[in-house]
Amino acid sequence: MVATSTAATSATVTLWQRTAACWSQAGGPWSARVGFHGLSTTHREGDGTTPEGLFGLSSAFYGVAADPGVHGSYHQLVCGDWWDEDPASPEYNSFQHVACGQTPPFGAQSESLWTNTVGYQSFAVVSYNTGPVIAGAGSAIFVHVDDGKATNGCISLPPVDLKTVLRWLQPGQSPHIAIATSSTIGQL
User: Fold this and answer.
1) Contact at 8 Å (CB) between 31 and 148?
2) Residue 109 has what pLDDT?
3) Handedness of CA 179, 125, 94, 131 (dihedral sign)
4) CA-CA distance, 11 to 150, in Å (whole number)?
5) CA distance readout (Å), 66 to 76, 97, 176
6) How many CB atoms within 10 Å of residue 94?
7) What average pLDDT does the structure give for the chain?
8) How is residue 151 annotated by DSSP?
9) Distance from C-alpha of 149 to C-alpha of 146, rounded to nearest angstrom
């Protein structure tokens, strides 16, 4: 994923695959949106930036819609499915389920995932701030459906392009996402 600058709120996503020592384009390029404050190498919880760097992608996929044909596990979201975005919580930056209608034990700006019926039709989880998890360093970085505006820090794509990406990802091959500007992509 490449943006023209760290202040940009739009970017381009291109899929690349490696065969032996050679890289070839496997899809795209597609227009994408990123954080409303652009990109940052010092992303923090709630700062509106998309973190720069090279990150893995989780083998677990989620969405309010039915499985679009992913090659990893897929959890269709239901009432009570949250992403814990509370830096004070021991489960910070993770998927959590609480009984439907019950107030979760974590607070802050945690997301009730099942209520985002546009952006979270289906999404992949970027393995950002996952090993180890650092409180306040940011959470819930997803590749999800574009809802017509810059994101809070995720990467969003038009629905048809996202579906292509989700179906293409092979978790067994340890896919990664490079998030950078056109001037820094070669440094990742």
Assistant:
1) no
2) 87
3) negative
4) 10
5) 6, 18, 24
6) 17
7) 96
8) B
9) 7
The 3-state DSSP composition of the chain as helix, strand, coil percent (nearest 5) reads: 10, 40, 50
Q: How many domains does the chain have?
A: 1
Q: DSSP letters of 57-77?
A: EEEEEEESSPP-S-SSEEEE-
Core vs surface per residue 101-111: b (16+ CB within 10 A) or e:
eeebebeeebb
75's tokens: 């959890």
Q: Specify the pTM.
A: 0.96
The Cα–Cα gap between 119 and 131 comes to 26
pLDDT over 80 at 44, yes or no:
yes
Task: Give Cα 93 distance to the centre of its chain.
Answer: 12
Q: Which two tokens stand for residue 86?
A: 């509370």
Say if CB 143 and CB 165 are below 8 A apart: yes
Helix (H, G, I), strand (E, B) or coil at 154: coil
Residues in the chain: 188
> Would you state the structure tokens that stand for residue 175, as one six-digit string?
């896919």
State what percent of residues in the chain have pLDDT above 90: 94
- Segments forming the whole domain that contains residue 94: 2-187
User: What pLDDT digit, counting tens, does each position of 101-141 carry?
Assistant: 999 999 878 999 999 999 999 999 999 999 899 999 999 99
Dihedral sign for Cα 184, 153, 13, 129, please: positive
Alpha helix locations (H) across 62-174?
A: 159-168
